[in-house]
Design goal:
By secondary structure, this protein is of the alpha+beta class. The protein has a single domain, classed as 3-Layer(aba) Sandwich (Glutaredoxin), CATH 3.40.30.10. Helix content is 55%, strand content 11%. It has helices at 23-39, 58-70, 74-82, 85-91, 93-102, 107-116, 120-132, 157-173, and strands at residues 13-18, 44-49, 140-143, 146-149. 35% of the residues are buried.
């Protein structure tokens, strides 16, 4: 049973502007896992799409990730694809369908979604919003109105996200 009480404050949001063909986003996975483990449902971690032109399969990967969300396994799919960044570079879209199949998702539906473009608007909207707020590379984190760029260096970013999240959670309690 969920608490739908209007008095319950919404969890702070960490938007992670990511690209599933990005080696830096692959490196950031450990930090994201740690943040999700530390905060659980007290911090909403949202994957936002920011496919970079230099990675030719990134836009298709973002669409495939949205199909995984529709099938109830968005994070698992994103992690699985990020774990195979180099392979995605070589194999392209067939790898996206292969990963879906390996996770027990409806791979045929992934194939169809990549052809019919049903998730293009979501990916386009994320990318447009990212550009509007100054995202230029991935990973980029946005929490509490603060943008943290991990595309150049990820050193200290998790600690900074934790500081902001702890502050936002403390503000909610007071």
């Amino acid at each position: 049973m969920s608490d739908s009480s209007p008095d319950r404050p919404a969890a702070p949001v960490l938007d992670v502007w990511c690209e599933l063909q990005c080696p830096d986003c692959h490196t950031a996975l450990d930090d994201l896992r740690a943040l999700r483990a530390r905060y659980g449902d007290r911090l909403e971690v949202r994957l936002r799409h920011f496919p970079l032109e230099k990675h030719k399969h990134a836009f298709a990967a973002a669409q495939a990730a949205e199909e995984a969300v529709a099938q109830g396994m968005g994070w698992q799919y994103a992690e699985a694809v990020l774990g195979r960044v180099a392979e995605l570079d070589r194999k392209g879209e067939p790898l996206l369908v292969e990963v879906a199949r390996e996770l027990g998702l409806d791979a045929e539906e992934f194939d169809t979604a990549l052809v019919d473009g049903r998730h293009i608007l979501i990916v386009d909207a994320d990318q447009a919003e990212g550009k509007a707020i100054g995202v230029t590379g991935t990973p980029t984190y946005v929490i509490g109105g603060e943008r943290l760029d991990g595309g150049k260096s990820q050193e200290g970013l998790r600690e900074r996200v934790e500081e902001i999240a702890d502050r936002l959670l403390a503000e909610q309690r007071s």
